[in-house]
Design brief:
cell division; Cell_div_ZapA-like_sf; two-stranded antiparallel sheet; Bac_CellDiv_Activator; cell cycle; 2 helices; alpha+beta; single chain
Length: 86
């Protein structure tokens, strides 16, 4: 069984250093982490009194909500394609 290559990438998210290990490319890992950092800063700007823990949870809730909406839309489009193909 072949094992996928794991990349170790050092990133900064909201002022904290993390080492992310995964099979995605370093550039993909950095891109994702950059988006998390951006979302945390956006939420913090709207809620300055949030502590980091609550900020992280709200960021996760936002990300999962976006994921669920996109997944539902994708499934809807798949059904529409199947219907059109007859």
């Amino acid at each position: 069984m072949s094992e996928e290559q794991r990349n170790r990438t050092n990133v900064d998210i909201y002022g904290q250093q993390y080492t992310i290990v995964g099979t995605e490319s370093t550039s993909q890992i950095r891109f994702v982490c950059s988006k998390v950092d951006d979302k945390m800063r956006e939420i913090k700007s709207m809620n300055p009194s949030l502590d980091t823990g609550k900020l992280a949870v709200l960021t996760a809730v936002n990300a999962v909500n976006d994921y669920i909406k996109l997944k539902e839309r994708f499934e809807e489009l798949e059904r529409e394609i199947k219907r059109l193909k007859g």
